[in-house]
Design goal:
Layout (H helix, E strand, L loop, with lengths): L4 E5 L20 E2 L2 E2 H9 L2 E6 L35 E5 L2 E3 L4 H4 L4 E5 L2 E7 L8 H5 L20 E3 L2 E3 L3 H19 L10 E3 L4 E3 L4 E2 L4 E3 L5 E3 L4 E2 L3 E4 L2 E3 L4 E8 L2 E2 L4 E7 L2 E4 L2 E2 L4 E3 L2 E4 L2 E2 L4 E2 L10 E2 L6 E2 L7 E3 L4 E2 L4 E2 L3 E3 L4 E2 L9 E2 L15 H13 L7 H12 L8
Parallel strand pairs: 1-4, 1-5, 7-9, 11-14, 12-15, 13-16, 14-17, 15-18, 16-19, 17-19, 18-20, 19-21, 20-22, 21-23, 21-24, 22-25, 25-30, 26-31, 27-32, 30-33, 31-34, 33-35
Antiparallel strand pairs: 2-3, 5-8, 6-10, 7-8, 28-29
Length: 425
């Protein structure tokens, strides 16, 4: 059993990933078939002891996830220092590690570098940890007026392989490539249930208890399709690879493709090039394209997002620093945890909807930015009352046999209190 430990940290860029960073560490976002944290654990053969992020996330907990912990609560590394397994690895949460034999490459203390940029450190037991400023600016501490370059004295650089994600839309734009990589590395079985119409040579891989009803068309010409344990597809429906359906997720019909759909989701209608983190409900018709949804999102019947401008130009997206040019022509919507939309909601290209918001009213397209915990889209509308929001969240989670425990309740309460400050530290 490996003793190597892993800590993921949210740098200043990750902490501004609206609309997700106010309610969850970036390492718990999904890319391909794994969260960024689970991907790092698998590639490094290490158990993640926790996330190092802003104070508002302390108490964050989800089943199977390590906690968010303060600096003074970071666990001590153990071991003699004589084994590569004794190393403590600190890694930026924005790093998606490639499947390339990385564990054998980390043999000694090192500064981890990806495409010439510092993204973490491998340190022996007892070694000094980087300070808070270095964690916020791992690749630019000195440029920020911090004498942080001294921390790297004597540490050799170790180039690692993967990608450093720059923004939330990086998840969406890179997802197809990571699904293909995961398929080649993880999905070895190939199944075609009776009555399923199959196109293409990439695998259709079914975990234990997964089922696909007769009459479903599965198109694997461009990539594999994987159903995890207990996932199900009701006919008629069309699945297009590369596609990953998480445990317990149900496709109720429609056309679902080139997407990652996390655990215990309900999906119907047209879903393309999107990521649903988990426990999301899209049980009705409507188009969801080039979108990223947090957990516990509920889309009312007919909710549809635009993902292409009429002039086919590059899409700009609201960020805490102001509008940003994504450089992409296809960008849908970004919905934070516990967002709900009314029936018939229309979301414009590049929409950003903050955590806990209820999207209704307006008589047409919703705004391109809906603040967290908004009660409707009227600029004069009040915020969702905290206790009412928490009661609703508790009921919604109970419907999926999940509990809103005290830690997560505290995280959501702090996010509500800080909703006017989009830059947590």
């Amino acid at each position: 059993m490996s003793r190597r430990s892993l800590l993921l940290f949210d740098d200043v860029v990750a902490r501004r990933w609206a609309p997700f960073a106010s309610t969850r560490p970036v390492g718990e976002l999904l890319l391909g078939s794994l969260t960024l944290r689970a991907r790092a654990e698998a590639v490094l053969d290490a158990a993640c002891a926790g996330h190092w992020s802003h104070a508002g996330l302390q108490g964050f907990v989800e089943p199977g996830c390590p906690p968010v912990i303060p600096r003074d609560g970071l666990p001590e590394a153990t071991g003699s220092g004589g084994s590569t397994d004794d190393l403590r690895i600190l890694l930026s949460s924005r790093v998606a590690l490639a499947w390339d034999g990385l564990p054998d490459a980390i043999r000694q203390s090192a500064r981890l570098v990806l495409d010439g940029r510092t993204v973490g450190w491998a340190l022996p037991p007892g070694a000094e940890l980087p300070d808070d400023e270095r964690i916020l600016h791992p690749d630019g501490g000195a440029a920020k007026g911090h004498g942080g370059a001294a921390f790297d004295d004597g540490l050799p650089e170790l180039e690692i392989s993967g990608a450093l994600l720059e923004a939330p839309w990086s998840l969406m734009s890179a997802n197809e490539a990571w699904l293909l990589a995961d398929g080649a590395h993880l999905w070895t079985t190939d199944d075609t249930p009776v009555g399923v119409h199959r196109l293409g040579d990439h695998p259709l891989s079914l975990a234990s208890g997964a089922r696909v009803e007769p009459g479903v068309v599965v198109d694997t010409r461009n990539g594999p399709v994987r159903l995890e344990e207990g996932a199900a597809v009701q006919g008629p429906a069309r699945l297009t690879g590369p596609l990953w359906l998480g445990p317990g997720t149900v496709v109720l019909g429609g056309d679902v493709g080139t997407s990652s759909v996390g655990p215990v989701c309900k999906v119907r209608g047209e879903v393309a090039e999107s990521i649903l983190l988990g426990f999301d409900n899209k049980a009705h018709d409507g188009h969801l394209g080039h979108a990223v949804l947090g957990r516990w999102v509920n889309l009312g019947a007919g909710t549809t997002n635009s993902d292409l401008k009429n002039n086919y130009g590059s899409v700009r997206v609201w960020t805490p620093e102001g509008p940003a040019d994504t450089g992409l022509s296809k960008v849908g919507s970004f919905l934070g945890d516990h967002v709900k939309t009314a029936i018939g909601t229309l979301l414009p290209t590049g929409a950003v909807v903050g955590a806990g918001a209820n999207v209704f009213g307006g008589g047409g397209f919703a705004p391109t930015r809906v603040p967290p915990f908004a009660w409707g889209v009227d600029p004069e509308a009040p915020r969702y009352r905290l206790e009412a929001f928490l009661e609703t969240a508790e009921r919604a989670m109970a419907r999926r046999d999940q509990t809103l425990d005290t830690g997560l309740r505290a995280v959501l309460s702090r996010a509500w209190e800080q909703a006017q400050d989009p830059l947590p530290r």
